[in-house]
Amino acid sequence: MELKEKLVSSFMAFEETIDVHTELHDVRTNAIKNFENKGFPSKKEEAWKYTSLNAFLKNDFTVFPKNENAIEFAEVKKYFLHEIDTYKVVFIDGVFSSFLSSTTHDGIDVCLMSSALNKPKYKMVIDNYFNKVASKSESLTSLNTAFANEGAYINIPKRKVVDKPIEIMYFSTGSETALLVQPRNLIIVGENSHVQIIERHQSLNSNPVLTNSVTEVFAQKRAIVDFYKIQNDNLQANLIDNTYVSQQQESVVSVNTFSFGGNLTRNNLNFYHFGERIVSNLNGITIIGEKQHVDHYTLVQHASPNCESHQDYKGIFSDQSTGVFNGKIFVEKEAQKTNAFQKSNNILLSDKATINAKPQLEIFADDVKCSHGCTIGQLDETAMFYMQSRGIPKKEAKALLMYAFSNAVIESIKIPELKQRIAKIIASKLGVKMGFDL
């Protein structure tokens, strides 16, 4: 049985296992119908022109894990930001791990999506926010909506500066031959509040895993959200990450995506503006090799005047790896005084590496500052020669140039311990040890 048919036939059985309200039942039913009609996206669709899912869809994925698995903190400590105290929402093969988690209801809610979906006290919040900004037409988002039950639920009330970062961690143990997991996160940040969030998906085994994740972020007036996505999985892991961001007046949302590992990674990042003086920051670093594939698809929809968006994506590709950047800025007629900037810079270290870049502007307002740019090239041989002539070995000179190339995005990290961690990962990917503090 093909995966599509397996999922559609499993839907009814899934609903029987959970306590579903009438409204959620209707949402799920419409979502599975949309997925059934559209199926998995193919390269015939413009948005998926350079990315094919066919290779890993042939796996016989387990939709619902048969066993509950436990892991010790010592086994996964290195994946956490253990240098500092954080809130933690941890899942193992899609199942919540209370042992590894550190949740709270003390002034803020950092807890489980399943509780929010099924407990009456959260009903008003779910009615107002769940599936309100996520796409109703995109097939993989619809698939996630149909099976949405578990993930992180974060609700920050007004005028709260969250005292420590929040880590959302998804571990796959490999106990199944091939596993499909579909996390659903809902993040609501109230007026004048500030939160820092780190999300990571990590396989602990070489068995294939497909993660189809959807996150909805709602930033109310003057809210500040710093979101960091760490993607450094093994070569059998496939990630489809769909993130939808709704911003209200004067809010500032930054999403920083660090793509270093995995077989295939697709990041769908969508920002929607609902008010003036909004700032959206989209930053990314991609460093991959072998036959890895990373696809960044971004959309910023400017619907109100006096707003800004800044996109800065850096890519370093070696071996037979493939990168895709498909970025779109849409400026509606009412969005006068928009300042939107989009940049994709890429370095190819191999003749067999590939980058497909498609920056796009659609502007219907006449008083705006909008620009986009894309570069694809190799390392500067003159700079390499200069550094080597000063006694720096070729390997270290090459790494320093590539680190400098990525530095603008690294500097956007506002958690010092995470900044150090990312710098170490980059140094490891470049095959050197940095002899200075970062």
What is the approximate shape?
Answer: globular
Distance between the termini: 51 Å
What is the helix/strand order? Answer: HHHHEEEHHHEEEEEEEEEEEEEEEEEHHH
Q: Tell me, rounded to a whole number, the average pLDDT.
A: 92
- What is the number of strand segments? 20
Helix content: 10-25%
Largest sheet: 10 strands, mixed
Q: Low-confidence stretches at least 5 residues in length (pLDDT < 50)?
A: none
Round the Cα radius of gyration to an integer and report it. 21 Å
Q: How many helices? A: 10
Q: How do the strands of the widest beta sheet line up side by side?
A: 2-1-5-8-10-12-14-16-18-20
Pairing-aware structural class of the strands and helices? alpha/beta
- Tell me what portion of residues adopts beta-strand conformation: 35-45%
Question: Mind explaining what this structure looks like?
Answer:
This protein has 438 residues and is α/β, with parallel strands linked by helices. It contains 10 helices and 20 strands. The strands form 2 sheets. Strands 2-1-5-8-10-12-14-16-18-20 form a 10-stranded mixed β-sheet, covered by helices on one side. A hairpin with a 2-residue loop joins strand 1 and strand 2. The longest helix is centred in the N-terminal third of the chain and has 17 residues, at 22-38.
